[in-house]
Amino acid sequence: MEWNKEKKVDLRYIFTVPNILSYIRIVLIAPFVILFLKKEYLFAAICIIVSGLSDCVDGFLARKLNQITQLGKMLDPVADKLTLLAVGVCLSVVEPMIIPVIVILIIKDLLMLIGASVMLKNKVMPFASEWYGKVGTVCFYVSVAAIVVFDLILDVQNFDIVSLILLSITAVIMLYSLVRYYLIFRAMMKKAKEEKSQAGNTAD
User: What is the value of pTM for the model shown?
Assistant: First the structure.
């Protein structure tokens, strides 16, 4: 009986509403890539719009429904990173101007992955995404959706200038979020080091 209860609790923990939205974002990556490579840009754009909307509301729902979990804190950025990388790589094939933003994105994610690994190694739980990280993600989604719709689908003339502006804003926000995340990382590691030092002194 206890075993069944534990399994039930585990399922509720795994399949919270915010977590389900993160799963949906991960699942949407495959159809987006397939549709994009087949030049079905409209349906590919719909996948991105749905993914972006789910990303905008999952944090709000987690707080509103009191479903903030450690699993959710890890799933959300993983879904974001996988989606952004898939979208970026696909789009850079047809729009080379996006490559600098993709490079910034890859560097940012690699540094954050290294930071998370260092925190876990030191038994410090990685922190959840902050609002500025979400803003960077939303800006990326908006930029990509605009490029796909107005450049690839509607073929609007001289849209390259608008694309460049949107991508530049996205890159600046990503760099800003990276700096802010680094400051949080440094503060948490410093606190963990101080607590470890105090624990060692108490033991002595």
Answer: 0.69
Over residues 134-187, the pLDDT tens digits come to 788 788 878 888 888 888 888 888 888 888 888 889 889 988 998 999 999 999
Q: 15-37 burial string, b = 16+ CB within 10 Å, else e? A: ebebbebbeebbebbeebbebbe
Map the chain to HEC letters: CHHHHHHHHHHHHHCCHHHHHHHHHHHCHHHHHHHHHCCCHHHHHHHHHHHHHHHHHHHHHHHHCCCCCHHHHHHHHHHHHHHHHHHHHHHHHHCHHHHHHHHHHHHHHHHHHHHHHHHHHCCCCCCCCCHHHHHHHHHHHHHHHHHHHHHHHCCCCCHHHHHHHHHHHHHHHHHHHHHHHHHHHHHHHHHHHHHHHHHHHHHC
pLDDT tens, residue by residue, 56-99: 787 777 777 787 777 777 788 788 888 888 888 888 888 887 78
**Domain boundaries defined on the chain:** 2-194
Domain 2-194 in this protein, CATH class: mainly alpha
Say if CB 92 and CB 98 are below 8 A apart: yes
